[in-house]
Amino acid sequence: MKKSVAFFLSIACAMVSATVAVLTSRSLALSTETRPVSATFAHGVLRVSIPYTAPRTGEGSLVVEILDPEDRPAVKIDRHADANAGHGLWNRELVLPKNLPFDELVWHRLRYRFTYAEEKADPIDGVISISRILRLPVVHVLGQPSYLSGGAAAVRLIVNEADNETPVTSGSVQIELALPGHPNQVLFTGSLNERGTTPVQFRFPASLAGRHSLRYVVDTSLGPVEHVEDIRLEDKSSILLTTEKRKPSGRVRTPIDSRTR
Question: At 94, which CATH number?
Fold first, then answer.
């Protein structure tokens, strides 16, 4: 009896393991299959991820180009590549020329073409607008319009992708106080966490007052991004003087004695 129970338990465990393996491999295949072409830009380099579906395994050549609005190649790389039967992913890096600024890159298109080396199979190719595949970070800052000179400050900083749903989970954060005619003063440095945020606390210099700007510099795997906010630093002594000059408003009501009537 004990042997039969152990036998059935071993069969059940084997069936569960096989089911998990099949579901895992299927989910991985589906994730690769449904993943769209994507790109990130940082420090003059465009990094592209190209999913593919190959009819068979083989090696060949992968040509990746950046086309300008007139379909002329602004950047072109031709590298050896391997294709595995089924779904896979190619990753390539394209160094942009100095005469192609980032602001103009969104008007260009990405074209790729894979051809097998010794086979007559159809090539794997595609063309897509870079503006549709470019993943960009966006900075959101929740702070105050004014702070106390020399006082402590805390702000909420969140970094998401442009869809405002996916948090950017890695990167460095630096907050600078812009000083006209002088180098910016660094107030805070930190790193993004898994929620795309970081606890930000710092202190303003005690000798400054008036209008200034806070510069938020965030460097992520999707590229760098900056955000500038105008603030006002209030001097503590001026706030006290202003408070002392204020008088209570309203009318003082004098009680009426009915006996005097």
Answer: 2.60.40.10
